[in-house]
Task: structure prediction
Amino acid sequence: MGKMRTQSAPWRAAAVLASVLLVGGVAACGNSDTGGGGTKDDGKITMGFSQVGAESGWRTANTTSIKEAAAAEGIELKFDDAQQKQENQIKAIRNYIQQKVDVIAFSPVVESGWDTVLKEAKDADIPVILTDRSVDSADKSLYKTFLGSDFVKEGRLAGEWLVEQKKGASGTVNIVELQGNTGAAPANDRKKGFGEAIAANPNLKIIASQPGDFTRAGGKQVMEQFLKANKQIDVLFAHNDDMGLGALEAITAAGKVPGKDITIITVDAVKDGMQALADGKFNFIAECSPLLGPQLMDLAKKVHAGQEVPPRIETEETTFTTEQAKEALPNRKY
Ligand code: AHR
Result:
C-alpha cells in the first residue's frame, strides 16, 4: 500500500496538470469560435505575416514598415521570412492557421498556386489580406483585400518616358530588360506595362529579357551576359533598383558609362536608387512604395472587427527624373 501511495503522487500531479491544460485549451477554442481566430483575453489582435524574403532594399523597407506599424498599433506580429520560396510561405501560412491567429497577411512570391492554402484559411475562419503582390486565384472570396501598387502602371510609366525620350531617334533603339523573379506579379506586370507603352514604336526593340530575381547579384550577373552577347545596348529597363544597381557594376566594368552610353530606367525609388539617379547613373525611376505597414494594420483591425473593406486598395506613387531625385533625396525615408 505504502509503495502504491508513493507511486500515485506523480500521477495525481500529472492529472491536475492535464486538466489545467484541457481547461486552457477549451478556453482558447472558445475564443477562436467567437473571435474568428485566436483572440486572446487581452483583446489583442495577432497577425501572422509571411514575407517574400530580403532580396532588395525595397523589401527591407517594407519589412521595417510592417514591424513598426504593428508595434505602433499594439498588434502582435508573427513574422516569417520565406527566402523567396513559395513552399516556405505555404508552410508559414499553415502554421499560422494552426496557431489560430486572428489575421493572416502575406506578400506572395509568385502569383499562382495559392488556392488550396487560402481555402484552408477560409475554412478556419481566418481572414487573409494580400499585401504588395496579388495572386491569380479566380475565387476572390479567398482573401479580403489586396493592398499594393499597380505594377502594370509602373511598367507603363517607364515605357512612356522612354518613348518621349527617343522621339525622333533615327535607327533602332536596343533595349535589354532585367525581370524580377519568374512568376512574380511585379515581374509579369511591369513587363506587360512597359511592352504595351513602347508597342507603337517599332524602332524601340527589346533584344534581350531575363530574370535577375530582384537582387543586385542577379542584376550584375545577367547584365554581364547581356553585354557579352550584344554589341549595342542603348537602354536597360530593370524591374527594380537593386538589379539596376548590380547592372551598374557590369556596365562600368565593360568600359561603358551608365546613364550616358546606356540609358537606365528602374522601378522602386529606394535611397540607393535615388542616389544613382541624382548622380546621373540612372535616368528615370517609376516609384513603388514599400511603406504599406500603417494601411495594412488598419485593414487588419477592420477585417477582424468584421467590417467591410474595399477589395482593392492601390498605393499612391509617382515618378522621378534626375532633378526630382536631387530634390527628394534629403527627405527620403527609405
Ligand atoms: O513586389 C515589390 C517588388 O519586390 C519590388 O519592386 C522589388 O524591389 C521587390 O523585391
Notes: Residues 138 and 251 are 42 Å apart (CA to CA). The longest helix spans residues 2-35. The longest strand covers residues 204-211.
